[in-house]
Write a structure and sequence with these properties.
Elements (H helix, E strand, L loop, with lengths): L2 E4 L2 H14 L5 H23 L12 E6 L4 E6 L6 H9 L4 H8 L5 H8 L13 E9 L6 E6 L4 E7 L5 E8 L3 H4 L4 H12 L6 E7 L4 E6 L16 H12 L5 E9 L5 E8 L16 E5 L2 E7 L11 E6 L8 H6 L1 H24 L1 H16 L9 H7 L3 E2 L10 H6 L8 E5 L3 H5 L5 H6 L3 E4 L4 H5 L4 E2 L2 E5 L11 H13 L1 H10 L4 E6 L8 E4 L7 H9 L9 E5 L4 H11 L7 H12 L7 H13 L2
Parallel strand pairs: 2-8, 12-14, 16-17, 16-19, 20-22
Antiparallel strand pairs: 1-6, 2-3, 3-7, 4-5, 4-7, 5-6, 8-9, 10-11, 11-14, 12-13, 15-17, 18-19, 21-22
Helix pairs in contact: 2-7, 10-11, 10-12, 21-22
The structure holds adenosine-5'-diphosphate.
Adenosine-5'-diphosphate binds next to helix 2 and helix 3.
């Protein structure tokens, strides 16, 4: 006797939404049904712990799928816990969860908004009606004798009939709609590729039954062979397996530099398996919006690749998987962006990757140096894109410096440890390339005192320095700044005063001639070998930054700098004599200013004027 029943009002609304507007991505119905089947298998296994007779030892828990291209019928069958009449009515006729009810109350009719909302709720089974003109559910509850059939066309009602069924479990029979984007789901290859995409790591075996038309034989093939490595205990996994899995998730091959594998239980439950590659993924430095992020799984079911919400942009080189128990399967992009669970997963991933890098930096110095060359510049972006992990990031920084050898780097910890006692600050110089900074006159004062200077030659460095103020209470100081001061002896102090007085005339004259170029000319106490250099007032923009801005098309009014001259240098002494004698300085000021620019790696504003000035100097006696 067939019993007809009405769907609960909420279900009717949900079905209407499902059928008319919900997903452009229809294939996900299969993911939902496979996931329901897998849950039913888990439930039976759980019940069998208390009642072993429910699951005889020779029974394999499994999911069978078959697609018939002629009849356009698709079936998904499991031998799990099954449903009796009450279960069918309750589970497939009403919506029990209050969350979903609330959702339906908040439906506005604004389709776009509703579709976003619905991502927050499980609507699994009903998604079958996106592709089905009719759905039959044949089910028999484990431990009971009577089977039942539930049938509906997704409109206002469903019917329930008694049905003899040999075994416990549930079989979902889908009569595909005649539309192209629905009836295609009866094709074997389609089903294979969808199952492989979403359900590769479902624990229970998924078999596909196909009909070999020539031999008129049924063939059975298992679709998901791979274990979800991240769900196994780390102790049971060999290094080789981790490396194989890396190839699978990275699509880049090569060896991972390191990985982190965690299972977190508590307020939330999730698994993460995160890798750091040993070679930078292609294009990683420049294309920051390129594919990045982790694979997101919910309850072993694949949700999406390159989930950007799980990883900050400055860790875009990392690869891996996060599998959570706490999100619904049909979670949407919009929800990911504002979801608390996702935010805490992202924090976890960030922390784990930084911790893993730190242990490589501690234990495998050479490997870390290689990583640094490949991906250090990306990591540095973290300094101007986050505030949370600055301490971790500081410890991961590596630099070339006045004291590092070839292929060698220094970290801040090491830098501070080897500072001479008299040194109070951390010194650095910014420039375009190593050769440009290595020869800079700005280094002379530090070098002569044995103070190490860090070389910052990455494009991001100048931005990074804006949030890198101190390390272990030592301030960072740019040696190109005019306010660099060291402790002086009485004698030094006196000598300085004297040369200041001596050079007054020359400084005045130079300043007049170079008034377009510099704000001030003064005697330097920092120069050893070079005749002069340009320094800038604190707060002024560095030469390198100025260049970057102009490359970006942002011409800034050039801040004039200070020209410092070396009182001990022969050239300066010569000029002093000339100035005191009231002689014309001729081309000397132009050459002096020009070489100060060249020595720090800057570009001459007017190279031909410089060359002709230099020629005049070379010809003069
Ligand atoms: P959800 O899976 O998010 O709870 P669904 O609408 O997909 O929502 O399913 C509703 C309920 O129907 C499930 O909670 C489950 O109790 C039952 N159910 C669905 N599919 C099966 C199945 N294959 N075997 C047993 N029970 C099922």
């Amino acid at each position: 006797m067939s019993e007809k029943m009405e769907f609960q009002t909420e279900v009717r609304e949900l079905l209407h939404l499902m059928i008319h507007s919900l997903y452009s991505n229809k294939e996900i119905f299969l993911r939902e049904l496979v996931s329901n089947a897998s849950d039913a298998l888990d439930k039976l296994r759980f019940l069998s712990i208390a009642s072993p007779s429910l699951l005889p030892s020779d029974v394999e828990l499994k999911i069978d799928i078959s697609a018939n291209d002629e009849t356009k019928i698709l079936t998904i069958e499991d031998n799990g816990v099954g449903m009796n009449k009450e279960d069918l009515i309750q589970n497939l006729g009403t919506i029990a969860r209050s969350g979903t009810k609330n959702f339906l109350k908040s439906i506005t009719g604004d389709e776009k908004r509703d579709v976003n909302l619905i991502g927050q709720f499980g609507v699994g089974f009903y998604s079958a009606f996106m592709v089905a003109s009719k759905v039959e559910v044949h089910s028999r509850k484990a431990g009971e004798e009577q089977g039942y059939q539930w049938t509906s066309e997704g409109t206002g009602e469903f019917s329930i009939d008694e049905l003899p069924k040999e075994k416990n479990g549930t079989k979902i029979i889908i009569y595909l709609k005649d539309e192209d984007d629905c009836k295609n789901f009866s094709q074997d290859w389609q089903i294979r590729s969808i199952v492989r995409k979403y359900s590769e790591f479902v624990t229970h075996p998924i078999y596909i039954h196909s009909l070999d038309k020539e031999k008129k034989e049924e063939t059975v093939e298992r679709l998901n062979e791979k274990p979800a490595l991240w769900r196994q205990s780390a102790k049971s996994i060999e290094e080789k397996q981790y490396k194989e899995f890396y190839e699978l998730v990275s699509h880049e091959g090569g060896e991972p530099l390191a990985w982190s594998h965690t299972h977190v239980e508590g307020a939330q439950e999730f698994w993460s398996l995160l890798y750091i590659p040993s070679k930078a993924p292609f294009g990683i430095r420049y294309a920051s919006e390129q594919s990045r992020g982790l694979k997101l799984y919910v309850k072993r079911v694949f949700i999406m690749d390159d989930c950007k919400e799980l990883l900050p942009n400055w860790l875009r080189f990392a690869r891996g998987v996060i599998d959570t128990e706490d999100l619904p399967l049909n979670v949407s992009r919009e929800i990911l962006q504002s979801n608390k669970i996702v935010a805490s997963l992202k924090k976890h991933a960030t922390k784990k990757i930084l911790d893993t890098l730190q242990s490589v930096a501690n234990d495998r110095k050479e490997d870390y140096a290689k990583f640094w060359v490949e991906m250090g510049a990306v990591l540095k972006e973290g300094f101007y894109m986050n505030w949370e992990f600055l301490d971790e990031l500081k410890n991961l920084l590596r630099f070339k410096s006045t004291k590092t050898g070839e292929n060698e780097f220094v970290g801040l910890e090491e830098y501070v440890a080897r500072m001479p006692e008299s040194q109070k600050e951390i010194y650095y110089i910014v420039g375009e390339s190593l050769p440009a900074v290595q020869g800079s006159p700005h280094l002379e004062a530090c070098k002569s005192r044995g103070y190490e200077v860090l070389f910052l030659t990455d494009t991001v460095d100048e931005f990074m320095m804006q949030s890198l103020n101190e390390f272990k209470e030592k301030k960072f100081h740019d040696v190109a700044l005019g306010d660099l001061e060291f402790e002086k002896t009485k004698e030094e102090e006196q000598a300085e005063q004297e040369s200041k007085k001596n050079y007054e005339k020359l400084c005045e004259t130079l300043q007049k001639v170079l008034s377009e170029e510099v704000s001030e000319v003064r005697v330097s106490s920092r120069l050893k070998d070079s005749p002069c250099m340009l320094v800038r007032a604190a707060g002024g923009m560095g030469a390198h930054m100025e260049k970057l801005m102009s490359l970006q098309g942002m011409e800034m009014p050039k801040a004039k700098r200070i020209l410092e001259i070396n009182p001990e240098h022969e050239i300066c002494k010569n000029l002093l004599q000339k100035a005191e004698a009231g002689d014309d300085l001729g081309s000397y000021p132009t050459v002096l200013y020009g070489q100060a620019l060249l020595a720090e790696g800057s570009v001459l504003p007017d190279p031909s004027a410089f060359v002709s000035a230099m020629n005049k100097v070379l010809l003069s006696k």
